[in-house]
């Protein structure tokens, strides 16, 4: 299942996202630190790839660089075959992070409607689309509520509905369920899996939860401790559609989990990594 990761340096045209030789270094107190070292990663159309790795390995930083929210010092990023260069947030990219970033002065329906307004969707279509999205994330009846009136899990679903309203072709997700309690996290993860299998967009998903990564993804990428490199990747041979909870009891799931845990445990703890 495990394979070392190598990549052709030419940008492939058949992939949705291609990261080539991406590195990030920075200077503190006259000492240069290497945060990311030669990352090569491809994401196909409609593929779900999860990234796991030790704390501080640069998973979230990698996602921010792809999103145009952070700089890199070497390498290139291609989206649909186009070099992104130093562009800001690329068009067609939707981001979901730990903080749901809902506008507290707007109701649920107004938060979800916002991308439709920005994208110029006719007002006559916005109401039906918002209603459809709220049904998709199981929030019927909450359209007029405000974020402060919702639980953490419900706010996450509103944030997901808002991203779906934007209709990106690529989702970048950084620990989107991280702040939730364990029970809510499993429930929201299961709901998200059903939604993704319905819309079928490309997803790059960062998580600390190995089981979450396997249950959701087509492929799990494992990073080393800092400076972050890609250590291995595992294709998940569990057919879709999946039951988010039931897949955890399969032999394939346990085999991949054991391999990934072994790879992670062989990495040094964050405070022992040489600077």
Structure, described:
With 275 residues, the chain is an alpha/beta fold. The protein has 2 domains: 1-92 and 170-275, Rossmann fold; 102-167, no CATH class. 32% of the residues lie in helices and 24% in strands. The chain contains 7 helices and 10 strands. The chain has helices at 59-66, 108-118, 123-136, 152-166, 182-199, 210-216, 251-265, and strands spanning 15-28, 31-44, 48-52, 74-79, 82-83, 93-96, 170-174, 202-206, 219-223, 230-235. The strands form 2 sheets. The chain has a 6-stranded mixed sheet, sandwiched between helices. Strands 2-1-4-5 form a 4-stranded antiparallel sheet, with helices on one face. Helix 6 (210-216) crosses helix 7 (251-265). 37% of the residues are buried. Mean pLDDT is 86; it is low at 1-13.
State the assembly state of the protein chains.
single chain
User: Hey, roughly how much beta strand do the residues contain?
Assistant: 15-25%
CATH topology of the largest domain: Rossmann fold
The major beta sheet can be summarized as:
6 strands, mixed
What overall form do the CA principal axes indicate? globular
What is the number of strand segments?
10
Task: Kindly report the average pLDDT value.
Answer: 86
State the fourth-level CATH superfamily of the largest domain.
P-loop containing nucleotide triphosphate hydrolases
Which strands sit side by side, in order, in the main sheet? 6-7-8-3-9-10
Count of alpha and pi helical runs: 7
Order of helices and strands: EEEHEEEHHHEHEHEEH
How many domains? The number is 2
User: What is the top-level CATH class of the largest domain?
Assistant: Alpha Beta
Give the low-confidence spans: 1-13
Task: Report the radius of gyration as a whole number of Å.
Answer: 19 Å
Structural class: alpha/beta
- Which architecture of the largest domain per CATH? 3-Layer(aba) Sandwich
**Termini Cα gap:** 32 Å
Overall helicity: 25-40%
